[in-house]
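task queued by scheduler; priority normal; single chain, no ligands, no partner chains; default sampling; output format set to structure tokens
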Amino acid sequence: MDISDPAPPQQHHEGGLRHEHGDHILHYPPSGEVPGLPRISATLYNQDLAPTKREGRHWTSYSIFALWANDVHSLGNYGFILGLFALGLGSWQILLALAIGAVLLFFLLTYSGFMGHKTGVPFPVMSRIAFGIRGAQLPAAVRGAVAVIWFGIQTYLATLVLRVMLIAIDPSLGRFDHNSFLGLSTLGWATFIFLWIVQVVIVRFGMDMIRRYEVFAGPVVLVTLIALAVWMFLEAGMSISFSTDHPLTGGAMWRSIFGGAALWVTIYGTFVLNFCDFTRASKSRKSIVRGNIWGIPINTMLFGVIAVVMAGAQFKINGHIITSPSDIVEAVPNTVLVVLASLALLVLTIAVNMMANFVAPVYALNNLFPKHMNFARASVVSALIGLVILPWNLYNNPVVIVYFLGGLGALLGPLFGIIMVDYWILRKSRINVPALYTQQDSGPYFYQRGVNSKAIIAFIPAALIAIVFGLVPFFSAIADFSWFFGAGIGALVFYVISERNPHAEDVSGDPIAVASTH
């Protein structure tokens, strides 16, 4: 039975319908129905879900490096490393943990990135390969939900920096920061809405504008954070404490080192899933490798050195452990420098937020409603969700952070394991790209009513085990490794129950591709 859409109307020929990021939505390939290829469904295809043409892709090695130059140096990551210092890990132990985690991430992200470069498709479409054209809604929704909540939270955290800067400029503004409406002060609301609008405006111009912003923000972030570390080093008399007064030793030390490495990978459990959203616009596989080498292991070690210098210098000065670089900014005894440093941290937070927490829900919404969504529309909807959930209340509720967001995060490992085994081991990277956009029941990704039940069967036990290991106190000793358990179990179960040599053929997506505007 053929349940595909009716043949696309003739007015959808190239040039008959605009398909840049605006209010226009392309429901069919620019050339209409392509001879010899399956009929494309308007419920599976639009200009943002379509594969990108190989010619004209814009992401270079530096683009990918700039992406990591921003994300690795996020305030949340500094908080994580400073927390390891507070737990008793010394400088060399923290750097070792980061080195182990960075090497693992380099390989995971590189192979994930290759998938995007070859197929040119975003993560929700990539998920159709293993989960089916309809089953892919599950991984896309999980990834999008995690991201949209963190978008709101990160925007709120950026307001804290902006409020410090504004009060430093005009102390009288402090009187607007003491009341509360729905959990936020007047100044808090003003700064949140301002930053919310800035991000929406940038994202509405599409992925290429995000790329341009990341390229601009990367050097600003690196120079600022290196300058803060140097300033702290000088303030501490050009020496630092390499550990707290109660450092970990023996087995506890090694468990924390490997646990820290595992958590560093878990932090990027989101990115290893949807890195193809970015590499679908990369110029070559070499650009991915070079960008990842400089952006992950090398940049991560620079990040680690900056973090331990900040922590060790502050501890030597007064025995206190800072929780974020923003703590250092507040202590700078010069208003001009406070303003400049705060602006740099705002540039950083916006860069991280758009890259890590805006792109995924935009593609997820496109995948859910391809007839009604495009990048611009989905970005506004994602931002509105991030606003109406009142994210500051979520962030200030430990139960929400630990159980809700932690539970969602535990689902990412099994999804990654299943998708990677299916793509690299079972199909050996042979993908029929046009078939990802057809509802014909003879298509290789239709499975049963559009869902691959084997992927669901593998996902359920792996997800449950990952959630239990990650959240139940009894398993606290292995909680740091829950992402690996989930990914490994999901991959193993899926491999065992799947057909060993599925009929897989390589068919290019170029005949139905659109020009890369990403």
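post-processing summary
- The chain is about 65% helix and 0% strand.
- Residues 233 and 239 are 6 Å apart (CA to CA).
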